[in-house]
Amino acid sequence: MGCNCVKHLKSERRNDLATKTCFNEAEIGALYELFRKLSSSITDDGLISKEEFWIGLFRINKKQSLLADRIFQLFDFKHDGVIDFEEFVLSLNVFHPEAPQAEKVAFSFHLYDICQTGYIQQKEVKQLILALLDESDLTFPDDVIEAIIRKTFMDVDKKGDGKIDVEEWKEFVIHNPLLLKHMTVPYLKTCKAGRLDDNPITETQRFTNSFKTPFPI
Predict the structure, then answer these.
(1) d(CA 68, CA 175)
(2) Pairing state of beta strands 163-164 and 120-121?
(3) Which of 12, 112, 155, 195 is exposed most, by the fewest CB atoms within 10 A?
(4) Cα–Cα distance between 74 and 85 in angstroms, integer?
(5) What are phi and psi of 48, to 5 degrees?
(6) What is the pLDDT of residues 145-176, one digit of tens each?
(7) What is the spatial distance between Cα 113 and Cα 8, in angstroms, rounded to a whole number?
């Protein structure tokens, strides 16, 4: 894999990304500063590896994180095992306060659809809940977790087929808007170039806490 590191973002590229997202060109420039710091934290190749993503955005070193892994997979929509700047910006755009609700709904749905079947299944929800509890050093009795999942599926699975499809998820979110609370990161509307700390963990902490918070269901 060749080096994609470019220290200065061309104005044409800033403009192109600005037309595709809720970010203006100045905010694109600020995100590029952040991207450069993250993508060079281990290997300066202009790409964010999974390890750089985990350490930079989630402060995870050796411990496995299902949530961080799922979000990395969704950011890496080109499926080449790394995140380039376009993927970084377009994915963060979903969390912008002015991003369309439909994009937030889709992202949250795909987060739970671990097996990528087009449906959310009970085993997937349990897997994610257990992972989040483990990361938070919390423990719930298995029967309590099962009861929560059963109640959730009773409310959401209107077709009664034991799984949640996209339309059922959309309907559930419409009636429970707080479910998308953590899909909006206010910092992304105010980020400015020149304000990034030398330590990307320090600067990103303000909005990556949203990723660390369990997505409610």
Answers:
(1) 27
(2) antiparallel
(3) 12
(4) 14
(5) -95, 115
(6) 999 999 999 999 999 999 999 999 999 998 88
(7) 37
